[in-house]
Amino acid sequence: MPRDVSGNYTLPAGINPVVANTLIDVDWANPTLADIALQLNNVFTRDGLLGPLAQFKIIDGTETFPGIAFASQINTGIFKTATLMGFSFEGDSKIDIKAAQTDFNPDGTTRLSLINDKAWFTSGVNGIFSTDGTIYTVGTTEPLVQINGAGNDGASLLISRWNTDTGGPILALAKSKGTFGVYTAVITDDTLGQIIFSGTDGDTLESGPSIRGRALSTWSNTDRFSRIDLYAIPSASITSAIVAYFGTATAFVEGLLGLNTTAEVRFQARKDSPAASPVWQASNDTAVFQGTTTSLIQNHVGTTVASTLGYDFSVASTRAVGGIRYTPSTNLMTFRTNSANQATLDANGNFVANNVVGGTYTPSGFTGTNVTAVTISDLAYMRVGNTVTVSGRTTVTFTASATRSSWTLSLPVATTFTTNAQLGGTLAPQAPSATAGNAGYCIGETTNHRVTCSVVSEQTGSTQYAIHFTYQVL
Fold first, then answer.
1. Can you tell me the distance from the alpha carbon of 376 to that of 311, in angstroms, rounded to the nearest whole number?
2. Which of 145, 200, 210, 409 is the most exposed place for a label (fewest CB within 10 A)?
3. What's the whole-model pTM score?
4. How many domains does the chain have?
């Protein structure tokens, strides 16, 4: 007779139980013995000959009292909880198997986690050891992966990719601001990863030059602003240290990038030693492109000194020979030769100030002899080099007629006259009579450095004059 749902066995009904003094008869004895034999063949045997033919169920147990245990150590075995299946040793779970994760807990603390398709070493892991004694160190105070060896190939790491497409192997360094397994965005100035080159100092390994990736923003799917930094360790005995070098072991066929204690960066593309003059050099606010011994082009950021230019085209290491300067505060571009500014362009492409410039200006008028008022319309002017020409019209009110009269006007470009001959020009009457009247002249005025206008008055009252003069900027 089959067992009930709880696994309990009872003798076949109807012919059992046998009452006292019943004769042994095949009708009841054989079916009973056959049923007993069937159930004896449906159990585990101690000699291991019989095993289950269907699913075998045991109790879940606990970490300290596993469902499957050993007679000599009842707290060692396999147990099951609602979230995991564990393997206990002496009451401590050493392996926890979960739905998408397996944790290894050799000393009671999780040291290795297999999560989906990734393996994660947790903090406190001191190393992975090979059978030949090589240590692959993982920890917080040592490099994350350390491979030690004595031969040429004894401490090598090869990453290869065998494929017909254009892609190559990838070495990925990753950073998260979150706890283990939590993807929290990195922020400005976070180090994304770093490669450090080290060497021994006779006592221990010391850090040397390094390559570092840094975030320059809080990262998102659309913003991953970042940069690469190259670092070098300065030397106490020399003023410069090579930060990046491209070339062969015997010749600088590509160049080098150096940084020294005077905030100077050099780039060189030559076939000689690093001590030779660089092709490009930046020091503080100055950048220089140069040949073997002389500067060809210099770039200067500062604009407070008159001779400081944006770009100097030089035959020596000097800023005063010539070049181009851009001044952000005034939005002007100045061209300079022979230590003097020769031409300046404004933002609209017009020549302004100094060398070649044109436009209008309204001068200030100053009364003088026999003049009570000076009224000025806008005057046109043009400067070429150090010569300025002005023309236009002015109205003058005289006190008396037929009298030598004078007045002065300010200039469009300031100068300092040492003689009145450094400005010359004419006055021609226009109204009230354009044909009758007296012409006049213009000369330089050496006290206030203006133009002096002089004419014999045609009448009492107002007279208009066409004015034209030229002077030198000194």
1. 42
2. 200
3. 0.36
4. 3
